[in-house]
């Protein structure tokens, strides 16, 4: 391994990314050094490139978060870390590390905390492995945000249902899978072209969010199925109000919980006896670390036994680090039920 490596560096707010050499770092006590094989792109990546949001405290910066690769070296306290040479997926983001560029995924070698690195089976390619970390973490955080244990397992007799508004997003596809494992009957909104795929992942019923009567369609289906719909994950902007309109008709006098993935505005709509929270990991560093451990251990087990699959399908774009600007522009232009991945 060379003492330097190529990285797609963000010199200043507004980009573009520029590929340059930077010093290859050493992992700290509870950290892992990874050789990146593929990165998956998220909206946060082009927001940081183009607008500096979420705020980037250090320039030049290295952004990115979803990655897959090979373990090169583990720190002295990373006792349970995958051994060198292991194929892994990782959440490698500078966002939780004061913007320090050693932790951003858009480079050949990156540092990641050991709790955010999991082995991937040989049946999962690096390209598919890269789509997993952030979407899976976000879908799992939705449950803990409303006080639900990840060990929850409903049976059909419990008649528990969940509404996922925005099922064809990367988070939405994992939300469908995790909801199915927990035991929910899963009701999903998405474009009709994606309904069959979401049913394969575990959706019970899918609805076209553009339909004028989508709210009444969902309410009617829930009542016909005789289930309790008082839990919802609203993943896309503008989905909170229709979600609450549905819960108003389905939750009865029971308390309800709604998790909203976009930033929750202070003047958001409300509903009686309903908890509405932003989907976000704990702020306290130690609580956040414990949460990450719990989520990624859950995910590692689900990948190993095959109950969760990488989703949505990877849309592979070429060019390596030099191709990241064009790939981010494609993501910014909008894609549906796919995640852009760039091999490195």
TrEMBL record:
Domain Enoyl reductase (ER), residue spans: 14-342
Its domain of life reads Eukaryota
Q: Name one Pfam family in it.
A: ADH_zinc_N
Write one Gene Ontology MF term.
Answer: oxidoreductase activity, acting on NAD(P)H
Keywords of the record, alphabetical order, are: Oxidoreductase
Cited InterPro entries: ADH-like_C, ADH-like_N, ER, GroES-like_sf, NAD(P)-bd_dom_sf, Trans-enoyl_RdTase-like
Q: What is this protein called?
A: Quinone reductase
**Which family does the record claim for this protein?**
Belongs to the zinc-containing alcohol dehydrogenase family.
